[in-house]
Amino acid sequence: MKQVVFHTTGFPEEVLKLEEAEMPKAGPKEVLIKVTARNINPSDIMFVRGMYGITPKLPSSAGFEAAGIVEEEDEAGTFKKGTKVIFTAIGTWKEYVTVPAHLLIPVPNGMSDEVACQAFVNPLTAYGMIEASGLKSGDWLLITAGASAFGKLAIQMASQKGIKVACTVRRDDQKVLLQELGADVVINTENEKLPKVIAEHTGEGAHVVFDAVGGVLGARALSCLRTNGKMFVFGLLSLENIPLNSGLLIFKNLKVEGFWLSTWMESLTAESRQMAFKTIFTHLLSEKVKVDIEATYPLEEFQEALKAYEKAGRNGKIILVS
């Protein structure tokens, strides 16, 4: 089978190679899956660079999230051959993977592979963060990197709950798109002062911030919180840590909390986890929440896919298909 692997960490375009490998053998409680679609996430890039929370065991394939078809069943027959499934695993940029049966999620009828392969990480992160935030209708949420896949999902989910949403972008042409998705205020941080605009629209400031950027923008977003506000940090797109203002934290009684989907999922009961997936899939199938697809590439053309992923102004996901 074909797989995209790296033998040393570094920039993906430099270290990722297409290689032939033996077919993986599934254990008694595992399922062999033919992978049909994988989306490229920021976490995939950081993993290859050795900058993610999971350290790669080299050599390793890239990618965490995918959709596929059951090729061989587990011994209990939990998922029948031919069943379409959604899953996460370390290394999905390959033609076949083995995954423990209890970690698989059936693809709902009517959902395409291109949507299914991105129906886990970003939608569940947005859902989980909104649930954990305690935000109510009428409260203000500030989202950095509003035009990201996560940002667009969080805007849609929050606005459906009556939560007022402000978000940041770096280009004016992204404003209308995010407003159409439900954002109340969109700030171009390249030419607008974030704290000033937030104060003008919210009065006392945002109740909660979702920050995926870190660095200086993260610090500015923190300053936009009202007294007793909270920032959830779940990404580091700038690759720079947030320079925290101790005075703000003390005198406004602010809280900064990390959010990682894996940890949040582990905290859920089986019933809560089932409800989360049901809610997400209902949103996606009804298109109450929409995901964007920029382009699809065969796995063999992963280098072209990486170039498309890095392209400025991209508004949708880049998908690797088999």
TrEMBL record:
Annotated InterPro entries: ADH-like_C, ADH-like_N, ER, GroES-like_sf, NAD(P)-bd_dom_sf
Enoyl reductase (ER) domain segment(s): 14-320
Record's keyword terms, sorted: NADP, Oxidoreductase
Any single Pfam family the record assigns to this protein: ADH_N
Top-level division of the source organism's lineage: Bacteria
Iron-sulfur keyword on record: no
The protein's name: Alcohol dehydrogenase
Organism whose genome encodes this protein: Belliella aquatica
Gene this chain is encoded by: adhP
